[in-house]
TrEMBL record:
MF terms (GO), sorted A to Z: DNA binding
Protein name: HU family DNA-binding protein
A Pfam family this chain is assigned to: Bac_DNA_binding
Gene3D superfamilies on file: IHF-like DNA-binding proteins
Amino acid sequence: MNKTDLINNISNKSGLSKRDVENVLNGFIGEITEALASGDKVQLIGFGTFETRKRSSRTGRNPQTGNTIEIPESTVPAFKAGNKLKEAVN
């Protein structure tokens, strides 16, 4: 399912217009992005937690040349599924 499919499904189930659903979804994604960028985490009880994690620096290898390269430390987004989501999937 892509973003357009999600908007269509929510619109059909809720009776809201596609434009309204798209505005809400974009707002939701924007708020999560801003929170993660500022170092906060977003916890939706039963669904899951969006957070950031530090990935330490490491040595990698260029697959084309075989040369070793140093990959710097980075911060990456992460999602941990909540219990209700895990139960629904299983």
